[in-house]
Amino acid sequence: MADFKNPSGAVVSANVNKLGQQIYMPWLKQAELEGRVYSASIGTDVVPIDFVVTTYDEDRPQFALLVPDGIIAIPVFFNTAIQVAPGINNATLLQICGNDIGNGTSTGMTTEGNVNGAFGGQSSNCTVRQLYTGDAVAAVNPIVIGQRVNAFLDATTSPELYYTWEEDELPLMVGPASLFAHVVAGTKQEGFLAIKWVEYLASELR
Predict the structure, then answer these.
(1) What is the pTM of this model?
(2) Of the candidates 189, 191, 92, 196, which has an alpha carbon nearest to the alpha carbon of residue 147?
(3) Which of 26, 70, 81, 101 is a Cys-bridge partner for 178, taking CB atoms 3.0 to 4.6 Å apart?
(4) What is the pLDDT of residues 108-161, one digit of tens each?
(5) Rounded CA separation 88/93 (Å)
(6) DSSP characters over 179-199
(7) CA atoms within 13 A on the CB side of 89
(8) How many Å is the maximal CA-CA distance in the chain?
(9) Are 4 and 15 in contact (CB under 8 A)?
(10) How many helices (H) and strands (E) does the chain have?
């Protein structure tokens, strides 16, 4: 370790090796070491969840990450894996918006929700919900950050029933905000969904 002054004049420490060279650590790895990375998933182990819906309804997503005021969340990974897709045009739509869309009529995620990657670390300040059967609050200025449509039938016809979102330029979700996903087809699907995100107090970044 070596001490130096940052631009505000405070003395801070930096990681250096024996040659005095500063050791660079990717920000996401640093966030993991600080216990800031959380994950959630739906579908239990090898048992898929029934995504239920057969028509798109913006106010009834199949998954939502709700970011409260005072928190900044940065999504870093999102994945869907469809096990049963008897219809065509199987779609996944991933969006963010500048308000908390609330619980609507949905289910909490108790077994696979809000897990800190540093097991036993601080609990998440965000809320995760699944399978909205009643309307959420309308999204304010929603932005599509990921989308995939598979026009074919199930995996016996096409193996491309997986969708993974990972980007270099990640959205900064300043609470209140929401990330929500629709997994929909003309015939209901069954499968799995997983997400990872990083959390900061707004005061730490702004």
Answers:
(1) 0.81
(2) 92
(3) 101
(4) 764 455 566 665 667 889 999 988 888 999 999 999 999 887 766 555 555 557
(5) 15
(6) EEEEEE-SS--EEEEEEEEEE
(7) 6
(8) 63
(9) no
(10) 2, 15
